[in-house]
Amino acid sequence: MDTLNFDGSCDPNPGGIMGFGWIINWSSDKKPTEGSKEKKPSKSNTNNVAEYTALKEGINNYLKLGGKGPLHVHGDSKLVISQMSGKWKVNNENLAKIKEETDSIIKKHNLKVKFTWVPREQNSIADRLALPKSRRNKVSKSDSKTEPKASSVKPENRKFVADVNSSSVSSKLRLQINEFNTSPSPGFKSFAQLKVGGFDSFSRKKLETLQKEAGSKASAISKKEFPNNSGQQASALRWMLRGLSTDLAIRKVKVDIELSKKRKK
Where is the segment annotated Disordered (predicted)? Predict the structure, then answer.
């Protein structure tokens, strides 16, 4: 079976340059085909838009080169793979539009496609190709993500207390959290812009209730990170229960602490 690995990037996320990369491995003796494109900075650019676009571009390239299927698609974006497989709903208009276009291409060519999520280590070539050319030349093939990260935890290794797709948060916040969870290194500005937008079902819950809902492990982590501040512990647990990964929830609270200090100066 022919295989397609795809990946997308947005640097910085959101609003930066988007890169799209893919590699086609043919079931015949044909040599693998690599492809890449990029798009100039725009407010609508995000990691997830880049991932979806990379998938669409990869499939288009496969068909242009005479691919008939069946095609086994691999990607390290759980969001894209889960939505293309019909496991998750698409709540964002921009992503829904690209998904609809991709579905239309698949249907038009009667292409049989299977989608499978893979960890980044198994997607290294597409990962490298997804980097903008200005960065790609500086990055070795063995490690395509060498820039300092706010979190040392890779997206595929992140731990979760709750699934954002079933959590009681607004559709806008759900999209934002999904963006964070699938991003390798959300920046300070992105964390600063991550807001509930008023009150939600978690906002007024006290620490004791949050600890019960989040569990002992998550509670222990929040206590270790913020030992002398129950309010900060509660804030971290709220973000975990909304669906933000454990490491990113901690980082979010730390960014909020820094912002608070700057306001007081």
Answer: 130-157
Tens digits of per-residue pLDDT, 16-37?
999 999 999 999 878 899 999 9
DSSP state letters, the chain:
-EEEEEEEEEESTTTSEEEEEEEEE-SSSPPPEEEEEEE---TT--HHHHHHHHHHHHHHHHHHTT--S-EEEEES-HHHHHHHTTSS----HHHHHHHHHHHHHHHHTT--EEEEE--GGGGHHHHHHTS-HHHHTTS-TT-S--S--S--S-GGG---SS-TTTSS--HHHHHHHHHHHH-S---HHHHHH---SS--TTTT--HHHHHHHH-HHHHHHHHHHSTT-HHHHHHHHHHHHHT--HHHHHHHHHHHHHHHHHHH-
> Is 0.70 topped by the overall pTM?
no
| Cα maximum dimension of the chain | 66
Instruction: List the chain domain ranges.
Output: 2-136, 155-264
Residue among 132, 142, 77, 113 at smallest CA distance from 4 = 113
The pLDDT value given to residue 133: 78
Judge contact between 59 and 114, C-beta under 8 A.
no
Q: What is the CATH code of the structural domain delimited by 2-136?
A: 3.30.420.10
